[in-house]
Structure formats: C-alpha cells, structure tokens
Design goal:
Number of helices: 18
Radius of gyration: 21 Å
Order of helices and strands: HHHHHHHHHHHHHHHHHH
C-alpha cells in the first residue's frame, strides 16, 4: 500500500512490526471472507483496526497516518462485504471503523492543546468548543444515543487528526512523503475498483444499493450506477478522490499518470458536480501559489492528464453519461434536481436562521416541498446543529486557520504545501453549500490538509529562523 522507495517506509527492523500488524489484519479479514465468516467480522474488524491503530500511533507515527487514510479509503468497502456475507445491514454507521482509528489522534489533542492555546491552536480550540457545545445541546434535548454519539465522533475526529498533523510539524517532510505515496495509491485503488464496479456491478454493491433505496445512485445493474468505489456513497467518494487528484498534479512519480487515468474517469462517473467544481476551484487557487518553475511542471501535468482523460471520456459507455451531466451546468433552469434543492434550501433556511441555541449534533430536518434534507447543505447542518451560538465560533476558527495559511511565503517552493492549502480551501468553500463538510469523509480532506499546510508553514518558519 505504500511506495517502498520512501526510506521512512521501507521494510527494516524498525518497521517490521508495523508491517506485520497491518498484514495480519489484512490476512484476518481475507480468511474471514474466504470461509464465509462475515458475521464474526462485525466486531473483529473495528476492534482489531482500533488495536492496530493504537499500536502504530505509539510506536510508528508515520504508519499511523497512512493506516488512518487507508481506513477512510477502504473501510466502508470492507463493511459492505461484511454486510453482504451477513445477509443484512449490520448495526452501526458505515464509517465506524475509520472514525475509531482517527479518534486515536484525540490523545494528541488532549496532550498538546493547552500549550498551544496562545498560538496557532486557538482556532482548533474554537472549533472543538463548538463541537462539544453541539454535543451537550443534543444530550440535553434528547436521550443520549448513537444518533448523537456518532455525529459527535464524525465532527470531532477530523479536527483531532488535523491538530495531530500540525503539532508534529517537525515530522513534516516524512509526513509529506506519506501523504504523497498514500494518495497516489489510494487514487489508483479506488479508481480501478470504481471501473470494475461500473462495468460489473458486484453482488455486494447491488446489495448495498438495494438496501439504501436511493434512486439518485442509479440502478443495481452494470453501467447503470453512479460510481462510489470503495466509499459508502458517491458524494463521499468524490470528496476523497478530489483531494487525491489534486495531489497528483504535484506528484513527481510515474505512477501518477496511471492513477490519473482511472482516477479522473471514476471521478467523472460519480457524477458529483459539487466535487467537480471544488477541483476546479482548487486548481485556480493552486496555480498562482506556485513558483514559475513549478507552474510549468503543473501545466505539463494538466496537459498529460487531459490527453488521458479526453479519449476515455469521449467513448461509450462513458460519453453519454458524462456529457449529459456536464451539459446540466449550462441548463440549470431545466435541471429538476437543482430546482428542487434550491426550493428546499429556501424553506429550510427560514427555519435555520432562527436557531440561536441549535438542536444539537445529529439534528436532521426535511423539506416539506422537496426531497432536500438539512444534511444536504453544510450551512444548514451548522445552524440546526449548533445554532448561532455554536456556528459563529466554529466559522471563526475555520476562517482564522485559512487566514494564517497565507502568512509568509517560505513554502512557495513546496508544491505539496501549496496543494494542501488549495485542497483545504476548495473543500470547504466548494462544498459547504451542498455537503456537511464538518464531518466524516467530507471533513477529513479539510482538516487533514489544513493540518499539513499549517505544519509546512511552521516547519519552514523554523527552518528560516535557524539559518
């Protein structure tokens, strides 16, 4: 799963135990599926993953970061296989295992946040305080249950992960290499499986599509489904893939071209227009932040990507699906989905603007005139969950972090740092109007790359001061 040329990830006596732990989990899952023991894996998968995550966090921090991202990449897919073998949708959220592994980074928050309150940690504290506020409001207004605890973990854990990456800014070069290797392989794996899913429609994916009963995801037949690959829904897949595709532009390995081919094709087949616009916004932010030499390399990467993407997207069975979705941008007035969403947002915003205290994490309201629900819009989620009392500190923390990213120009020669900043900003501003970017798969690119961008800034600042 890792690019082995990276000296920090090579198999050596210092990392052998880490590899054995990860391979042990893979073999355990594979054996369970081969013998048809899916029901036994319901508890084994999250429990074993959590144990390995704790081990890696304490002994092999770089491996822990990579392991966490792979849980978000493929954790929902493993859960889908478990449910398929069990014959029913097993209890708990689909992304429970990734959340549990990510939650380990909360140990870093508890350990380091007090000493960072007067520094760059203040915005993290504002966002964290808002999340705790939303949790307490939910507990006061409703009996405590998984309907409150799971959203709490979904909001909390990405913040902890981002803070963990920021605090360990001294390890920025190693963590940067880990991100680059992990995401190029992640794009490749998710892209290849996404194409297989689109053409074959495996039984476990058909089972999931029938169970969720959401017609917007397509029909459980080959060539009739939106691609969501190893994620749980197309929107969450597209959010993760967008971040990976952005990183490919600043990656220098040959493998990025293969990953780009399958990655962009499945990204388009997901048919998530919000993610497409987020990618475009990210590129517009990235280009001016690079030095001239890096801009030229970026332009070459874009041209190569276009040479790979255009022939693939112009042939059937891809062309008609992708073209019809692209044409919807120029025909918004006749787009029933967009018009229904717009009407529903107007209705719900009238109620959301009157929420001063909020209804607590997990609050969900549905429009009476459309299929839109409050969780289909990030601002609605904020206002209904946190009210104005909780939303303003949360937004203030996010804005403060974004402002801090543009201080200093020490990292302009670091293409990864520029890409990390662009990913974080485009994820938030490109998707806040349509997706709950504060939790789960939507929040991981936001906070993960925020953390890395802040770490890069601190690393280069310290490097400059010690010269």
């Amino acid at each position: 799963m890792f690019y082995l040329r990276d000296r920090t990830l090579q198999t050596n006596p210092q990392s052998t135990q880490a590899w054995l732990a990860i391979l042990g989990l893979v073999l355990l899952l594979a054996l369970g599926f081969l013998v048809g023991a899916g029901r036994f894996l319901i508890l084994i998968f999250p429990g074993a993953s959590l144990a390995i995550g704790v081990f890696l966090y304490h002994r092999y921090p770089t491996f822990y970061i990579g392991f966490t991202w792979w849980m978000w990449f493929v954790g929902s897919f493993v859960r889908r296989l478990i449910d398929y073998q069990s014959g029913y949708v097993t209890p708990g959220p689909w992304n429970l295992t990734p959340m549990l592994v990510t939650a380990i980074s909360c140990l870093t928050l508890a350990r380091y946040l007090p000493r960072f309150l007067n520094q760059a940690g203040l915005p993290f504290f504002l966002c964290l305080g808002s999340v705790i506020y939303g949790f307490l409001v939910g507990v006061i207004q409703n009996p405590i249950s998984d309907a409150i605890i799971i959203p709490f973990l979904g909001w909390l854990t990405p913040i902890c992960f981002g803070f963990h990456l920021f605090v360990h800014w001294r390890d920025y070069p190693e963590n940067r290499q880990t991100f680059e290797r992990i995401f190029v392989w992640g794009v490749l794996v998710m892209g290849v499986y996404g194409i297989y899913q689109y053409f074959v429609a495996p039984e476990w994916d058909r089972f999931w599509l029938i169970e969720v009963e959401n017609p917007t995801y397509g029909r459980p037949e080959p060539l009739q489904m939106r691609v969501w690959s190893t994620a749980v829904i197309p929107q969450k897949f597209a959010a993760l893939m967008m971040a990976g595709l952005m990183l490919l532009f600043v990656n220098s390995g040959i493998l990025r071209f293969v990953a780009a081919g399958v990655g962009y094709l499945t990204f388009l087949l997901s048919r998530i227009r919000t993610a497409w616009l987020s990618l475009l916004l990210g590129l517009l932010i990235l280009i001016p932040s690079l030095k001239t030499r890096l801009q030229m390399r970026f332009i070459v990467s874009v041209m190569v990507a276009m040479l790979i993407i255009l022939p693939l997207s112009s042939i059937e069975p891809f062309s008609s699906v992708i073209t019809s979705r692209l044409e919807s941008f120029s025909n918004i007035q006749d787009d029933e989905s967009y018009q229904e969403r717009l009407q529903g947002q107007r209705e719900l915003f009238d109620s959301a603007l009157a929420e001063f205290v909020g209804r607590g994490l997990g609050a969900k309201l549905e429009s009476e005139t459309s299929d839109l629900a409050s969780y289909d819009n990030g601002m609605l989620v904020l206002l209904f969950s946190l009210g104005w009392f909780g939303s303003l500190p949360y937004l203030a923390g996010i804005i403060l972090l974004f402002i801090s990213l543009f201080r200093g120009a020490e990292n302009r020669s670091d293409a990864f740092a520029s890409a990390a900043r662009a990913i974080a900003i485009s994820t938030f501003f490109g998707q806040i109007a349509f997706n709950p970017v504060m939790e789960g798969e939507f929040a991981m690119p936001l906070w993960g790359f925020l953390g890395m961008s802040l770490a890069a800034q601190q690393y280069y600042k310290q490097e400059k001061e010690t010269r």
